[in-house]
Every structure is written in structure tokens, then in C-alpha cells.
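1st attempt posting a full record on here, be nice pls
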Amino acid sequence: MQLRFLGACQEVGRSGVAVKTARSQILMDYGVMINHDLGFPVHISPRDLDAVVLTHAHLDHSGLIPLFYAHASRLPVYGIEPTFKLTKVLVRDMIKLSGYYLPFEYIDLENMLNHVLPVNYRSKFTVGDAEITLVNAGHIPGSAQVIVAAEGKRVLYTGDFNLIPTHLVPGADRAYNDLDAIVIESTYAAEDHPDRVESERNFVLACKEVVEAGGTVLVPAFGVGRSQEIICMLADHNFSYPVFVDGMALDAIRMLEEHPDSLRNQEQFKQAMRQADQISNWNGRRRAARTAGVIVSPAGMLKGGASVFYMENIANNKDNGIFLVSYQVQGSPGRILLDEGRFILHGKARKVGARVEKFDFSSHGGKTQLQETLRDLDKRTKVFVIHGEEANCRHLADWASQELGLQATTPRPGEICDV
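the predicted structure (as C-alpha cells):
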């Protein structure tokens, strides 16, 4: 059995790992890099593949899979059912915003969705000579880790995973049994997240401070997962002021309401979403921007979406707040706002007068979680560290080698490794 690393090598974005056996080849994820420009993983031909397994809907894992169907592919795509509806929401939006730069169109996305084969957690299925099992990843609803067994070997691909339960999903399943290799993410390999309960308390308190002084809080959040998490969080803490939700987050809410089994607490989700004011037009946006309350809106990195409209309207007022709750890629508008206190609008840099803060509600495992996962492995298990900035990948690989005596490496794009 061999692993071929196509992306997310010493970087966060454009994930893709292929597992090859004597009789089959399975691709796990095939995403895009969304930064200043779109970036793609190493090319692989659909003719060389027997199946695709999609771990979750986020574009850095799902965004390039429709390309295969621009070439009349009939590849089956496996995953947990909510993943496909959420992927449709995200990829359609990407095509709308960046279609000129993409090598596929809406019709190819639809063709891909016609070839999906939903499976359940812990239900085994076969592709050629490989037996595949998906287990809960604790990242977003429908997210999965992938276990591939073939030729007497067992490989785990964690995708994005999180051991800490959130308002939306339970923590990741770590009942892996014996493994010969693990492909593990390292987004936060060098740092632990602050205590979740304390972070939530501080966030809600900060929102109250701004709103009670008559200000408006903008919470730029990823449309799938983080937006709904924030709304549930505010409801759970009995936040009694107006909460607005806008943009793609609304589509994701409707998708998740169709799949209540993917949620940790169905009733809490329904109640929280009912309490939020769901904005559907420009009059609603203008009203929200003038209201003392909290606006939850994509894009999480302020790269587009309704959050840009709100930035234009509230960012210059010192009584308002902009509370970032999503991962901020280097060079993204959100990262520039955090580091430099300015926002690029219509090509011009504007100084931001509003209160700017970052709150850590990551759905990725932190340093301790990643290390705990590796501690549980047999000494013979090979470790391949990906999906982190170069320093983080190296940090986790070095720790695994020096502290645990594991054979740990940080693959390069296109590298092929034996299991």
C-alpha cells in the first residue's frame, strides 16, 4: 500500500491524499487553496481512480472534486450525507465568486452530486480490494475520519478533527484499533486552545458590553459550522439582545435542519435558529447595521459575502465591535485586520475604529489533542504530518519522533510513501 500526497503539504489548504493498493486507488479529499488567488493540489487523473472519499464540506477539502466530472467521470464519491448538501452550498458560492478562475462549471458540480454514495459512521464499504470505514471527526456536522484497510495494512486519514465537543457536534471518535500509518492534521500543532468554557464566557460578555453601550457587533464566521455554532452559543448563554444571521449561513441552517441526526443537540439547534433574525434582503441588512445587536455573517476571513457590507457600515465607529471567530489565513483581510488594524475595501486600506478582538472557537484539535492521539499509537505506526503551516508540521513530526520514537515525516507535494 502506498500514499501519494497531493496537497496540504506543509500548508493549510488544497487537501488531497491518494491511497493505492495492488488493485485500486482511492482519493481522500481534493480541495482548493483560498488566499489571494485560488490554488490547486497536484493533478491526478480520474481515470486512475476507483473512488473519492470526502471527509467534510469545507472548500479546502471539497472544492476541486467537481473537476473530475468535467471529463465525464463516473467516479463514486463517498461520505456522510450532510456533507454533500453543505458542499453544494459552498462550491456553488465559490463558482459564483471565482468561476472565471475555476476549471469547471455548475453542471460539473451537479454531475458530481449525481454520483455521491452516502454512508453511515462505522459502516464498512469496499472499493476494489480496500475496506473503508468512516468515523466521526468532531469538526463540523457530517465530518469524518477515514480508515482504509487493504493488503493486511490499516491507514487512518484524520482529515480535520477535534476531540472537544462543541454546540454542534460531539468530539471525534478515537477508537481506531491497530494502525500501520496515520495521516494527521497539524493546524494547531504548536499551541493549545484556551479553555472553551472561558472563551465562550468572554465572548458573550464582550458582545454584551458593546450592545449595552448601543453598539453593533459583527461576527464574521464561516457559513458552514462556525456561524451556527456562534448562534447556538449565544442562545445557550441566554443572550437577550437581537442576533441576526445572514448570507450563506442561512443555506447551511436549512441543510442542517434536514439532517438533525448530524447534530449533537437537535432541540437546542432548532430553538437557537428560531430565535435568530434571518436576514433575506438589503433592507434587512441596513436595519441590522443600525441595530444594537450581534450580526453573524460569512465570510469568516472577510474575503467576501455580506460581512463586507457590514464592515463598510460599522467598522469606523468606535462604539461597534468586530469579533473574529474563524481561522485567519496569512494575507487574508481578516488577518490584516488583526495584525494591522486596517481593512481593504474597494482596493483602499481603511483604518478601523471599531473594537477588534479574536476569540478562539477552533474546530481543530490543539497541541495536546494531537499529541494524545499520537501517544495512543503502536511504536511501529508510521506518521505523516500534513495540513499545517510548515513550522507546525515540523513541530508535530519532530515531537512524535523525539518523544515517542515514532517514524514521523512531513511529506512534500507529489511525494509517494510506502505504508
